[in-house]
Amino acid sequence: MDDAIAQHAADSHDLIRVHGARENNLKDVSVEIPKRRLTVFTGVSGSGKSSLVFDTIAAESQRLINETYSAFVQGFMPTLARPDVDVLDGLTTAIIVDQQRMGADPRSTVGTATDAHAMLRILFSRLGTPHIGSPKAFSFNVASISGAGAVTVERGGKTVKERREFSITGGMCPRCEGRGTVTDIDLSQLYDEDKSLSEGALTIPGYKPGGWNYRLYTESGLFDPDKPIRTFTRQQLDDFLHREPTRMKIAGINMTYEGLVPRIQKSMLAKDREAMQPHIREFVDRAVTFTTCPDCDGTRLSEAARSSKIKGINIADACAMQISDLAEWVRGLDEPSVAPLLTALGGTLDSFVEIGLGYLSLDRPSGTLSGGEAQRTKMIRHLGSSLTDVTYVFDEPTVGLHPHDIRRMNDLLLRLRDKGNTVLVVEHKPEVIAIADHVVDLGPGAGTAGGAVCFEGTVEGLRASGTLTGRHLDDRAALKKTVRKPAGALEIRGAATHNLRNVDVDIPLGVLVVVTGVAGSGKSSLVHGSVPARAGVVSVDQAPIRGSRRSNPATYTGLLEPIRKAFAKANGVKPALFSANSEGACPACNGAGVVYTDLAMMAGVATTCEECEGRRFDSSVLEYRLGGRDISEVLAMPVTEAEEFFGSGEARTPAAHRILRNMADVGLGYLTLGQPLTTLSGGERQRLKLATHMAEKGGVYVLDEPTTGLHLADVEQLLGLLDRLVDAGKSVIVIEHHQAVMAHADWIIDLGPGAGHDGGRIVFEGTPADLVAARSTVTAEHLAEYVGA
């Protein structure tokens, strides 16, 4: 009888066991995670949550799956090293939905990033009238080409010549090459046409009278430098602006002369906007205008592709529809010949609506999606999946979600679990922690002070545990007793970007303003579209910061510059010696600190460089000291220690101290100056960006969801920082969903009432107390519930 009850051996593997995990800052972490349950990982930003969930559990699962493919296929896949862990038991296939933003390639849209566009193209190539060709004929990424000629073929030992012709019909608009916009250079921003070159007509950064950039034009001999540009003949103007590169003698030196426009395109416009210096970025933003392509009217498609219709709608119209409307239209098509296609397309579109993205359209460029929207777009693939016993790994799935939308996300996570899957979520929001079956709290601090498990168990146990997360779980920011008085207003009139409906609003200045509303209601469109990027406006958006393993907080924030100069001055040598990417680099590893060996489809090996022992610098450089420390020791310091070091004594460097203080202010005191950017978490990168921008001289700060990736305890620190900015006379405009920030605001602007074409209006403006009292909007309901009103 007992044998019948005894558990089958196959059913005994109910745990994912991790023993001795040491990735990044983890200190021999051991946890047991129940399968087919929802486990939430919490802890302050930088405590090691992502290291445990993504870099250990998910990475090993992916690596093991990749090893099941043949060596040939593995050669095309990313190679993954085995994580630094002693035992990983009971792993199941992991499906990872992380926060990596989608590529901002101008040709990538919501439709191409999911399979919806591919299915639409097949649909139009089968049912569209007139019939114009294969699905390629509807793709704005395929250009039409044709050709003919002789080809040489070897057959049966003989060489035979044959004539061949080929043609591909693509759907790309020939004028804008499938981008939808054409760029124009505004010539009035390049020069003042009423002045002559001798009088300093050029207004481009770096083109100063007397410099080589300037002499190239004044001494070329192609036109008279003393005549105002407006009086040039057509030929002279063409030589000045558009001449092809020509070798000529200028001021007795052989040089290449090139027209002004192509020269600027090569030197400035070919660069990544993020990598430009601020004054050049400002010039490029002024000088380059993007206008909708006049041939295709911004649809990216050729005339032929737009001429083929189904029930009076062409593929461009279908992509421009709001997805919820497109789903209705697809349901109305009854064609047995393409029935499986219609079912699959309908299913994908319904998933968009269900996950709360029904307000997007398929032609929306994927680079314009916010972090949360991009993450939810990636989730669409897995919603209808009938796979079970899979591990789903989510990185803050509630980023960019209004409390109203978080409920839907919770239902979704529970549905995935109830199908028999293990769901692992890295999350800070108490609403999500509350639905967990099991909680793992990491900490106690961040960086080297973190990396240990503080608590494992139920949500109730976490509340009673006395850990940092447990103590702050029921924190509720109270509404302010008194709000600050505005010192003026920024007037916005007739804002109509994206889904905004001619919005008129006055944003008060000199106070803390929070712009809120459900996801897709038009918050970013209002703030980024209408608050001009003029001097004095510092905008910290959600674009991720890029960085190779050579970049670190010191190089990214510009902190290394004053440090190098201080070292150089103290030792009487040149600053380039103190850069691991320049002259001071260790010759054996080129300043990388490690030597990489590539092993084809096996994971590459990184070994610490034996010459410099991972310090990245040439040994001769390490003999130079400042305040008793060498450069590698300074880069190994945490921000708080470095702040003291550069604050007083022999090493006093005010420029460095200022940047370090900003980093400490945003809660990054535990980061070491030389930690590679690739090892920072999403929240840490966002705050590093905030620290860099705080150094800019600005009167208006625009912050886009600064609480992303912040622990409840860190949100208090952020509120203190926002208060300090306002008290210093700055105006702070925050786009935010976090109720603590809303409660702390002096003025709230609430957009809605819904998303997409149901949003785009202002449903409330006033103080948080009035919003709670009125309870007139979705935001008001949730804020009232939050403050316990």
UniProtKB/TrEMBL annotation:
Name the domain of life.
Bacteria
List the subcellular locations: Cytoplasm
Task: Write down the Pfam families for this protein, in alphabetical order.
Answer: ABC_tran (PF00005)
Q: Which family does it belong to?
A: Belongs to the ABC transporter superfamily. UvrA family.
Residues covered by the ABC transporter domain: 477-778
What is the name listed in the Swiss-Prot or TrEMBL entry for this protein? UvrABC system protein A
| Matching PANTHER family | DRUG RESISTANCE ABC TRANSPORTER (PTHR43152:SF2), UVRABC SYSTEM PROTEIN A (PTHR43152)
* UniProt-recorded Gene Ontology molecular function terms: ATP binding
Species: Streptomyces cinerochromogenes
Coiled-coil zones: none
Q: Which UniProt keywords apply?
A: ATP-binding, Cytoplasm, DNA damage, DNA excision, DNA repair, DNA-binding, Excision nuclease, Nucleotide-binding, Repeat
